[in-house]
Every structure is written in structure tokens, then in C-alpha cells.
């Protein structure tokens, strides 16, 4: 608590922070937050901060709730003040200050360290389109690579010159797990991304939407599916979900898949303790999380097996 108070005083007394808060843009942003909040969004950020805690406030729970609150306010600011980076910076600095005691208490596989210190293996893979009969999808593939908290996507074609074919996403201080997958639907190309505290569904238009005729002149550039991607799309609340880890550990393994019929994203995340978190996200953004624990799975399995044998 003492560390948080000192860090907060440094934050409050910093000249640049005060100027940003009381600037004309800052005033406009505060008004926009009051006017544009959907369903009392800002109030809900405050209400959810300690909503699930018991009478005794545990440090792990407090740190996780502060992190969730930072993301909650960050999304509200991004929607109401998209052109004022100063308030987003203030949000990060404020929570970094009051979370001072938490910055070294994140546990991963029994090792203490900050989220930034978590080491995840760099991975890369590729995806090719199913239909090899069409000129614009044959010999066309997507290469992806993850490096800590950065996901890089590159689309290549041997038959078509693609414009705007490279994009990078930075999940700030949130390591990406090896569980990225790419799926092709009738209308879209969907990239599923699991991190140590969130799951994301990045949606891009299918190449068929750009190519209404089969033949494209080889000297003309055609738009890549990444050419019109925006920050607003990535920040759409219906495309991602932050989950709360039930213990002080973080997931270290993950996998993802997409059901073709309902286009439901399925993420499976494994913890060092043996627990598994199943996250299902519908096309509309509705999320269902199920915690699977070894001590609860085995008895149910054996019980069901015994019923079958009777």
C-alpha cells in the first residue's frame, strides 16, 4: 500500500499528467465518456472492481481486478476519445502506479515475474486457401509469426500482386500463446489468438469479396485481406474476451478452433496445475467459460463409465 501511495503521488505531481487531464481535449474526453458510455460503462468499470471479493481482500484478487479495471477503462476511452492518445496514456500510467505492489507478483509455473518477463517460445506457421481452382485463391497463403506480445500476419500470392499484405498486432505486455489458428468461412478469414489472459478473434474479408472475376491482370495490384484492417475492428468488444485466472498461475499451453456451421470460436488453455479453461465465443460475441479440473473430471468420467457397465 505504501508503494502504491508513493507511486500515485509521483503520477499526480508529474507536470505532463496534470496538463493532459485539465487540457481542453481532456475536458472534451471527460464529457464524451459521460455522454457516450453505453449502459453506464464507466460506472460498471468501478462496480466490477471489487464486486467478486469476499470480506477479506486478497492481494492476488486485488491485483487481477486492478488489471481488469485498467482494460475496462482503456476500452471506454478508446471508444469515446479515439483521437486523444493523452487519456489512454494517463490510464496506463495511473494503473501502473497504483498496481506497484502487483508488478512483481504474477506467477507463471511457480516462477515470480511480471507479465513482461514471461518467456514464451516464438512460433510461426502458415495457412493456404482451400479452393485451388480460382485464380485469386490458388497459390495464395498466409504466414504468421508470434514474438512475445507481437503477432505478425503476411499474405502472399504467386499469381496476384497483393497490396497492403502485411499487418502487426501488439498485445501490450501480454504474451501470445502457441495456439494461433486461421480458419476460412464463406465470407471471412478468421484468425484466433490466445494470450495468457485473453482470447481474440480477428476477422478479415474473404478474397472472394475483392475478386468478382476469376482473372486478374498480373501487372495490377489487388488488395490483400489485411489492406482495410483497422484499430477499431481489433478493439471491437465482440471480438475478444479477457478471462480471470482462478489461481496465481497463468496458462502455458493453448489451442484454438472454429466450428464451420455456427462459426463459434473455441479456445482451450492449460495451466501448470493441471486445470484447463475452455472458452467458447459465438459469432455475435457471447462468451462461455468453463473451468475443467482434474479432481472433478475423473469422478464424473468413472461414474459415467460405471453406469454404462451396469
List the SSEs and their pairings.
Blueprint (H helix, E strand, L loop, with lengths): L1 H12 L1 H8 L1 H13 L4 H7 L11 H22 L4 H14 L7 E3 L2 E3 L9 E6 L11 E8 L2 E8 L3 E3 L2 E5 L10 E4 L3 E7 L3 E8 L15 E3 L7 H4 L5 E3 L10 E6 L6 E6 L5 E6 L5 E6 L1 H16 L1
Parallel strand pairs: 6-11
Antiparallel strand pairs: 1-2, 3-4, 4-5, 5-7, 8-9, 9-10, 10-12, 13-14, 14-15, 15-16
Helix pairs in contact: 1-6, 3-5, 4-5, 5-6
Summarize the structure in words.
The protein has 8 helices and 16 strands. With 310 residues, it is of the alpha+beta class. The strands form 5 sheets. Strands 3-4-5-7 form a 4-stranded antiparallel beta sheet, with no helix packed on it. Strands 8-9-10-12 form a 4-stranded antiparallel beta sheet, with no helix packed on it. A 4-stranded antiparallel beta sheet has the order 13-14-15-16. Helix 1 (2-13) runs antiparallel to helix 6, helix 3 crosses helix 5 (59-80) and helix 5 (59-80) packs antiparallel against helix 6 (85-98). It is globular. The termini are far apart. GO terms for molecular function: structural constituent of nuclear pore. Pfam families: Beta-prop_Nup120_160. InterPro entries: Beta-prop_Nup120_160, Nucleoporin_Nup160. Residues 140-306 form the Nucleoporin Nup120/160 beta-propeller domain.
Amino acid at each position: 500500500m505504501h508503494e502504491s501511495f508513493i507511486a500515485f503521488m509521483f503520477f499526480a505531481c508529474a507536470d505532463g499528467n496534470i496538463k493532459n487531464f485539465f487540457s481542453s481535449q481532456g475536458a472534451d474526453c471527460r464529457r464524451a465518456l459521460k455522454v457516450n458510455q453505453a449502459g453506464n460503462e464507466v460506472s460498471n468499470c468501478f462496480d466490477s472492481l471489487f464486486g467478486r471479493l469476499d470480506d477479506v481482500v486478497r492481494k492476488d484478487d486485488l491485483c487481477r481486478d486492478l488489471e481488469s479495471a485498467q482494460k475496462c477503462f482503456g476500452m471506454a476511452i478508446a471508444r469515446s476519445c479515439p483521437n486523444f492518445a493523452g487519456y489512454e496514456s494517463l490510464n496506463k500510467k495511473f494503473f501502473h502506479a497504483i498496481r506497484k505492489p502487483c508488478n512483481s507478483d504474477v506467477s507463471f509455473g511457480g516462477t515470480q515475474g511480471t507479465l513482461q518477463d514471461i518467456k514464451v517460445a516464438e512460433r510461426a506457421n502458415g495457412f493456404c486457401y482451400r479452393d485451388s481452382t480460382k485464380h485469386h485463391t490458388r497459390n495464395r497463403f498466409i504466414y504468421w509469426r508470434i514474438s512475445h506480445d507481437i503477432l505478425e500476419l503476411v499474405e502472399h500470392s504467386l499469381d496476384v500482386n497483393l497490396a497492403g499484405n502485411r499487418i502487426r498486432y501488439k498485445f501490450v505486455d501480454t504474451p501470445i500463446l502457441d495456439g494461433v489458428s486461421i480458419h476460412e468461412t464463406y465470407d471471412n478469414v478468421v484468425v484466433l489468438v490466445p494470450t495468457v489472459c485473453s482470447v481474440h478473434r480477428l476477422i478479415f474479408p474473404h478474397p472472394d469479396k475483392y475478386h468478382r472475376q476469376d482473372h486478374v491482370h498480373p501487372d495490377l495490384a489487388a488488395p490483400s485481406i489485411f489492406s482495410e484492417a483497422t484499430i477499431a475492428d481489433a478493439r471491437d468488444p465482440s471480438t475478444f474476451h479477457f478471462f480471470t485466472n482462478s489461481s496465481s498461475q497463468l496458462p502455458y499451453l493453448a489451442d484454438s478452433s472454429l466450428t464451420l456451421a455456427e462459426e463459434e470460436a473455441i479456445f482451450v488453455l492449460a495451466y501448470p496445475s493441471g486445470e484447463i479453461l475452455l472458452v467458447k465465443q459465438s459469432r455475435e460475441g457471447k462468451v462461455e467459460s468453463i473451468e475443467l479440473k482434474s479432481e472433478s473430471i475423473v469422478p464424473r468420467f468413472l461414474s459415467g463409465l460405471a453406469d454404462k457397465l451396469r
